[in-house]
Amino acid sequence: MKKNINFFSLIAAREGSKGLKNKNLIKINGKSIISLAAELSLKIKKIKHLIISSDSSKILNLVLSDKKIFKIKRRKNLALDKTPMLPVLRDALEQYEKKYKNKIDAIVILDPTSPLRKKKDILKAIDLFQKKKPDLLVSVHEAQHSPYFSMLEKNDSFYELCKDKNLNPGSRQDVQKVFEINTIVWIYSRNAILREKKRIPRRTIIFKTPYNRSIDIDTNDDITKINYYLNQI
Question: Where are the beta strands (DSSP E) in 55-157?
Answer without folding.
Answer: 69-73, 106-109, 136-142, 152-155
